Automatic annotation (TrEMBL):
Organism: Thermodesulforhabdus norvegica
Designated gene of the protein: cobD
Cellular localization per UniProt: Cell membrane
Organism taxonomic ancestry: Bacteria, Pseudomonadati, Thermodesulfobacteriota, Syntrophobacteria, Syntrophobacterales
GO MF term list: ABC-type vitamin B12 transporter activity; threonine-phosphate decarboxylase activity
Protein name, as recorded: Cobalamin biosynthesis protein CobD
Cellular component terms (Gene Ontology): plasma membrane
Amino acid sequence: MFVSPLDVLMAFLLDLFVGDPQGWPHPVRWIGGLVGKLERVLYVGAKEGSLLVTRGALLVAMVLTITATCAVLGLLLAYRLSEWLGHALSVWLIYTSVATRSLHVETARVVERVNKGNLEGARKELSWIVSRDTDVLDEQGVMKSVIETLSENISDGVVAPFFYLLVGGPVGALLYKAVNTMDSMIGYKNDRYLHFGRCAARLDDLVNYVPARLTAGFIVISAWFLGLDAGRALRTVFRDARKVASPNAGYPQAAVAGALGVQLGGRLSYFGRIVNKPLIGEPLRTVGCEVYRESVKILYLVAVCSCAFVAFIMSF
């Protein structure tokens, strides 16, 4: 099951120009459906914390096993039928693992409503892509949330899938997306998921450790190419990245905040509970449309760097 640099390039071009059209078959949606079904079965009747942790770990093991089995068998069958079919399936798996255009489209919907003065609509659109309570955010809060989620997802949606493609081929990229999907669905520190989602959250922290730091490096390089403040981006990473409770999220956020000259974090609400998140970066600029446009340029340039890096390594 050989994956060529051409497969990677074709998948990346599909991601850039096609994105993630609503209604198209997508393995991440299937994984999400599987997680939901298993949660309904495994959560029932578990009241003690230790039992919830065990059942949550069982869910993680089952999702990863089923995902890997389906991907491997599908690729083996495709390559047995035709080498072209095998490469086509590899391209599709890589394409559906990377979310560059999707990340741009989803955040742009929020910003478009802000531009039209539709704060309520912006809050609603934002609620689809973040876990924080959006109904209490003002316009600046909405825009800061957009930059925060975009910067964090440069790692989760772009760099990390490419990294695990390099490590484990299309199956590795898909398994990473499975971990990330489980974390986004059950990896919360609330009453329902504190114990049940612990394994998913810890595994997500583990698999994102290297990609998050690699992302920060790519962001600094991209800032330099774009004429932004790469030096400040690097300084902000060293100063602020470890302030965040997550072992990984602070690295891309700090790099983006430094490059753009904005401050992220602060007082937020999650599931009705107020959380004072550490301040990242310096408030040198108001977070507005120009800042957003620059963050999108960073997103695409980091994506190009990631694809080029993987294709270059695979060429040897």
